[in-house]
Design a protein that fits this description.
Keywords: NADP, Oxidoreductase. This is 2,4-dienoyl-CoA reductase [(3E)-enoyl-CoA-producing]. InterPro entries: DECR2-like, NAD(P)-bd_dom_sf, SDR_fam. By secondary structure, the chain is of the alpha/beta class. The termini are far apart. The chain is globular, with a radius of gyration of 19 Å. The chain contains eight helices and seven strands. Strand 1, helix 1 and strand 2 form a beta-alpha-beta unit. The chain has a single domain, classed as Rossmann fold (3-Layer(aba) Sandwich). The longest helix has 29 residues. The protein has a seven-stranded parallel beta sheet, with helices on both faces. Bound molecules: coenzyme A.
Length: 294
C-alpha cells in the first residue's frame, strides 16, 4: 500500500535566514514567558534582536529571560504586567524603551483558553478571555504604537483557526480571536501610511504547548491529531517561529493586513477537538476527557 508523506521536523530559522537580520532591533512580546510566544521570541533574538517579555508571573518570566539570553547571546528583559491593565502595559513599554531605546517589533500573544460549552460558560468566563485576548491586544497596540511609528515597525498578533468554523466549547476564544483578526486588519490600513505593518499568525494545534494540553481530549477519546494534518505531523513551535522571522524580516516588507494559518493544512479538514455530537448533547459525559472543569 502506498505510504503517506510525513513532512520532516521543521528546521531552525537560522538555517534559512541570515543571523544578523534583526541586529539593533527590539522586540516587545506579551505572553513571551512560555509556549509559542517564547519560541517566537527566541527565534527573533537568534537573529540579533533584544527582547522584552511580558506576562503575569514574574518568576516564570525571569527564568525564561535568562534562558533566552543564554541561548541567543542577546538581552532579554522580563516585565511583569497583565495585558488587561493599560497602565501596567504602558509602564512595561516605558521600561523596555528605557533599557533598549526603541521598539521595532511587537508580538501580541498573551491569551487565555479553556474548554467550555455556552450552556456552562459563565458571563465572567466569557469576559475574561475577551479581556485577555482582545482588550489585551488593543491595550498592547495603544501602548506601543508611538514607538512603532518611530521605528517603522511591525506587529504580529497570535490568533487561531478555530473561529473559521463553529468549534464547540470555544465560543469565548472564537469571539476573541475573530476580533483580534479584525483589529489587525484595521491597524494595517490605518498605520500603513505611517510605515507600520500588522499581520496575524494563526497557529493550528501545536504539540507540547499549554494550549494543546488544555484543549485536547484525554483518555479513550484522545485523538491522533497528526493523522488529520495534511502534512502528516504535529505542529511544532518552530513552525510558528519561522513564520515570525519571515514576517518581521525585510522579505515581508510588502505584506500587511494578512492572516497566516500555520497548521499543516488541517484548517481545511474541519476536525474537532471533542467527539461530535456527543460532547454537546451531554457535556457532563465529557468531563473525563478534558482537563478543564465545566
Ligand atoms: N471552565 C469554565 N470556566 C472557567 C475555566 C474553566 N476551565 N477557567 C476559568 N473559568 C472562568 C472562572 O470560573 C471565572 O468565572 P466565574 O467568576 O463566573 O466563576 C472566570 O473564568 C475567570 O476565571 P479566573 O481563574 O478568575 O481568571 P484568571 O484571569 O485568573 O485566568 C485564564 C483565566 C483563562 C487565563 C486561566 O485559565 C489561565 O490562566 N490560563 C493559562 C493561560 C492559557 O490558557 N494559555 C493557553 C492559551 S491557548
Amino acid at each position: 500500500m502506498p505510504q503517506r508523506h510525513v513532512e520532516p521536523a521543521p528546521v531552525d530559522s537560522t538555517a534559512v535566514f541570515k543571523n544578523d537580520i534583526f541586529k539593533g532591533k527590539v522586540l516587545f512580546c506579551t505572553g513571551g514567558g512560555s509556549g509559542i510566544c517564547k519560541a517566537m521570541t527566541e527565534a527573533v533574538m537568534r537573529h540579533g534582536a533584544h527582547a522584552a517579555i511580558v506576562g503575569r508571573k514574574l518568576d516564570r518570566l525571569q527564568a525564561s529571560a535568562e534562558e533566552l539570553a543564554a541561548a541567543t547571546g542577546n538581552q532579554c528583559l522580563p516585565v511583569q504586567a497583565d495585558v488587561r491593565n493599560p497602565k501596567l502595559l504602558q509602564e512595561a513599554v516605558a521600561k523596555t524603551v528605557e533599557k533598549f531605546g526603541r521598539i521595532d517589533f511587537v508580538i501580541c500573544g498573551a491569551a487565555g483558553n479553556f474548554l467550555a460549552p455556552i450552556s456552562k460558560l459563565s458571563e465572567n468566563g466569557f469576559r475574561t478571555v475577551i479581556e485577555i485576548d482582545t482588550l489585551g491586544t488593543y491595550n498592547t497596540i495603544k501602548a506601543t504604537l508611538p514607538h512603532l511609528r518611530a521605528s517603522k515597525g511591525s506587529y504580529i498578533h497570535v490568533s487561531a483557526t478555530l473561529h473559521y468554523r463553529g468549534t464547540p466549547y470555544q465560543v469565548h476564544v472564537s469571539a476573541a480571536k475573530a476580533a483580534v483578526d479584525a483589529t489587525s486588519a484595521v491597524l494595517a490600513v490605518e498605520e500603513g501610511p505611517h510605515g507600520v505593518r500588522s499581520n496575524v499568525i494563526a497557529p493550528g494545534p501545536i504539540a507540547g504547548t499549554e494550549g494543546m494540553d488544555r484543549l485536547s481530549a484525554k483518555g479513550p477519546a484522545a485523538q491522533d491529531y497528526a493523522s488529520f494534518v495534511p502534512l502528516g505531523r504535529d505542529g511544532d513551535v518552530r513552525d510558528i517561529a519561522n513564520v515570525t522571522v519571515f514576517l518581521f524580516s525585510d522579505a515581508a516588507r510588502f505584506i500587511t493586513g494578512q492572516i497566516f494559518p500555520v497548521d499543516g493544512g488541517c484548517e481545511h479538514l474541519r476536525t474537532l477537538p471533542l467527539p461530535y455530537p456527543e460532547s454537546v448533547v451531554d457535556p457532563e459525559a465529557v468531563t473525563k476527557m478534558i482537563k478543564p472543569r465545566l
